[in-house]
Specification:
By secondary structure, the chain is mainly beta. The protein has one helix spanning 338-359; strands at residues 3-11, 20-25, 31-36, 39-44, 49-55, 66-71, 78-83, 87-94, 97-104, 110-115, 121-126, 129-135, 141-147, 163-168, 175-180, 185-189, 194-200, 206-211, 217-222, 225-230, 236-241, 251-253, 258-262, 268-272, 278-282, 292-296, 302-307, 310-318.
């Protein structure tokens, strides 16, 4: 029977769903991390309960915003995130205790991060270029090298550098594939710090990119549509039109067999990555403007979608199956945990400040 995604639950909260900007499932699919302004929040997927809230430093007027997040590969609970003020933090868990390590990178404009398959290297990118970091046994990060700005061409000579995706090229552990809004897609050799290849040299704006799990194809979201390119031959394999003025996020799912993206009508759709055929539309309120999504396809098929103040979890079931309707709404059911979460978030925020004060700036 055909698998179809259906909404399993909706999560909203006045305190912890203020301005959702990023989503990511843990490697085992048990947890969902998301950013909410100056807070990093983690939900337990099956119970729909907040486990922990990490707050950024108080900058005087507001909390430092979470700018990027990722789960450490091959670990059950280890999140790496960056804040607007340059803090790179690692959050781990043992039993019922959460542990925090952080360093002030002195970089104030990190927008994207990527961990290599072993989790030993971190690439952090922004308008400054890309910085490479390595981890130590204490879950903290040490600076290794700085990669420069991308190659410029006549069509983008004066364009501002804006990174829209970073991916470790797994067969070549010292190579990065980076997509830029106005500078195409370029492959960096981390050891030499040089660009070794350009996959796409176009003046068309690139909104985001996604690397297939086998590292053979790269999907890019452009103004004309979603294009899937074969990395070895550098030729486009499939083009999916979307008519979006501003290209939205895209993501390979189902082991690279499907592509998740948005349409002009504001819908989230699944397309086949081989033929570009539309497989399913994930329909929600017409007033919803989707900001980001994440997917898990290792132990079961899950998709999380988010608007500014709401997260919807979708689960794939066989056609004809139903999901208990009592699981589909979640409004105000966390009040009994409110005090505990406030105390926990304040405590962790204080720990961040203490850690950064002790670590000091990078030498």
């Amino acid at each position: 029977m055909t698998l179809m995604y259906r909404p399993k639950w909706t999560f909203t909260d006045n305190l912890y769903c203020q301005s959702i900007g990023g989503l990511a499932f843990s490697p085992d699919g048990l947890y969902l991390a998301y950013s909410s302004g100056g807070q990093l929040c983690v939900l337990e997927v099956d119970r729909r309960e907040l486990m922990v809230v990490i707050q950024g430093r108080n900058t005087g007027k507001q909390l430092s915003t979470v700018t990027a997040l990722a789960w450490m590969p091959q670990e059950s609970f280890h999140i790496v995130c960056t804040f607007q003020d340059g803090v790179i933090a690692s959050i781990t868990r043992s039993s019922d205790q959460f542990h925090l390590a952080g360093i002030d990178s002195m970089i104030r404009s990190i927008t994207h991060i990527a961990l290599n398959p072993t989790g030993s290297w971190l690439a952090a990118g922004g308008a400054f270029g890309i910085s490479i970091w390595t981890t130590d046994p204490n879950k903290s990060w040490s600076f290794v090298r700085q990669l420069g700005l991308p190659q410029r061409f006549q069509a983008n000579a004066n364009a501002t550098v804006e990174i829209t995706g970073i991916h470790w090229f797994e067969p070549k552990e010292d190579q990065l594939i980076v997509s830029y809004k106005c500078h195409g897609v370029q492959i960096w050799d981390v050891s030499s710090g040089k660009v070794i290849a350009s996959i796409l040299t176009t003046s068309t704006s690139i909104g985001s990119s996604s690397l297939s799990p086998d590292c053979k194809t790269l999907a890019v979201a452009m103004q004309s549509g979603y294009d899937i390119h074969h990395l070895e031959s550098r030729v486009p394999l499939v083009s999916i039109p979307h008519e979006l003025n501003v290209p939205g996020p895209i993501l390979f799912v189902h082991g690279g067999l499907s592509l998740l993206g948005t349409t002009k009508e504001g819908e989230i759709c699944l397309w086949g990555s081989v033929d570009g055929e539309k497989l399913q539309t994930l329909k929600q309120s017409a007033s919803d403007s989707w900001r980001c999504f994440a997917a898990h396809d290792k132990t079961r098929f899950l998709i999380a979608t988010a608007v500014k103040r709401k997260i919807v979890l979708w689960e794939a079931t066989e056609e004809g199956d139903t999901i208990n309707s009592a699981q589909t709404d979640r409004n105000g059911q966390l009040k009994e945990h409110w005090l505990l979460m406030c105390l926990l978030s304040v405590t962790i925020a204080l720990l961040v400040n203490v850690l950064i004060a002790m670590l000091g700036p990078r030498a």
